[in-house]
Structure formats: structure tokens, C-alpha cells
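Supplementary Methods, section 5.1.

A reviewer requested that the exact input to the structure prediction be made available. We therefore reproduce it here, unchanged from the version used in the analyses.
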Amino acid sequence: MQTNNIRKILLGLILLLMTVSVYSLIKSLNKEALPVEILKTMSKNVDIEIENFKVTHEVSGAKDWEIKAKEAKVKNEESKIILTEVNVTLNADKNRKSTISADTGTINRETKDIQLEGNVKFKADADNFFGQFQKSSEASKEPDNK
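The structure derived from this sequence is encoded cell-by-cell as follows.
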């Protein structure tokens, strides 16, 4: 009878010790995990989310254009990239720089087309921007002396 009581007490102590050990282990693992605020669940069909997205195209070492966005969501299945707070910079030459901004944008990865929507704004130096069209229209008015 006395042996049964000792066994029950030892079993109780072992269970208590195991419970405390498991609790301490779980508590220490949670401290090392990322806070819930940092973790972000991705919406369905989104393969990659990129913050501070930036793509630059260069020709012979000179920056031709640049696309920046606060966030980009790559959807491989639909072959498109969804952008938020988009800024596009076009560099025609050193004297002509144009910018286009919009709330959202979509890049078609197959055709390489970009569609901007919501508060779309285009900024350019008017003299330089319209000057290029005047030069091309004057060239088309010249008579063909062939």
C-alpha cells in the first residue's frame, strides 16, 4: 500500500515536471517568432509580394526608364504584376525627363504593357516634350525630291 502511494506521488511529480518543461519550451519558442504584425498573409493567386519595388531599364549604360512602386504582387498564373503607388520615370535624354504617377498599375508580363489607373499624373517640361513632336512633324512636311 505504501509502495502504491510512493509510485503515485512520483508519477505526479514527473507529470508536473514534464508539464512545466513543455510550457517553458513553448514560451521560449514564441519569443523568437516574428510578431504577428510583421507577418502578412498573401491573397490567393499571388506568388510573390515585393515592397519598395524598382525596375530600371538601361541602354548603353544610360537609364532609359524606371518603374518604382510601394508594393508589387506577382501573379505568375495570370502573367501579370499588380503595383500600388506607382511612379514611372522616362528619360528621353539628359534634358528631357518625364514622370508618370498613379495609384495602381498592372504590368502584363507577356506583352510588357503597363496600365496605370487612379489619379494618373503626367509631368514633363512642355518645351522639350512638345519640341520633339514639332521636329518630327516638320520633317514629314518636307517635300520628297526623288
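Residues 15 and 21 are 10 Å apart (CA to CA). These observations are discussed further in the main text.
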